[in-house]
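Students often ask why we bother encoding 3D structure as a string. The short answer is that it lets us treat folding as translation between two languages. Here is a chain of 200 residues written in the first language.
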Amino acid sequence: MKVKKQHRKKKYQHKLNRKRLNRKQRNTGTVRCEVIKDAWDNKKSTYRNLKDMGLANDPNKIIQIPNFKQEKIKQAKVIVNKEEIEDIEEENITTVPIKKEVAEKLEKQAKAPRERRFMLPKGQVEYITYLLDKYGHDYKAMEKDRKNYYQETWKQLRAKIKTFMGIPKQYGKYLQARGLLDKEPDDEELKKQAKALAED
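And here it is in the second language, the structure alphabet:
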């Protein structure tokens, strides 16, 4: 006996915009990278575009995990048939991508130095500035301060202050507020700082 299929009556849905849905399905999304966007060809597929630029669509296929079994099989075939060595060598030849300058530009961008955006939290900056105002660079005195709630060692405090001094935006603001930016360096103060750094 034949199983009878149930056919649901197809209704035209007025609320759906088929044209927009098809466009959305076919759309591969906007490319945010300017270098890739300029070299992108809308007539080609994503895979073809990336291959022409010398980029990988699937990194797992490009950088494969070596398969021990497959390597042993290849070696056995080479031993049995010495003619196959030429075929294996032909397989290893890679083609040069058409738009190789895209990959080079991306590589250059990746290697370019970036602006440091790291900033310390406001509370930490206030605590460090308080310590610097009160003790200068005497880290061992800072260790015994009442506001050292987390009982940080003098080395930990020194590391925090060094980090703070390494952020020009925040440290510059601190120096400007204390009027130390335009002031000529005092010999005694420099000696104190040098002594504190020598102890490190």
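Translate back mentally: Residues 4 and 10 are 18 Å apart (CA to CA). Keep this in mind for the problem set.
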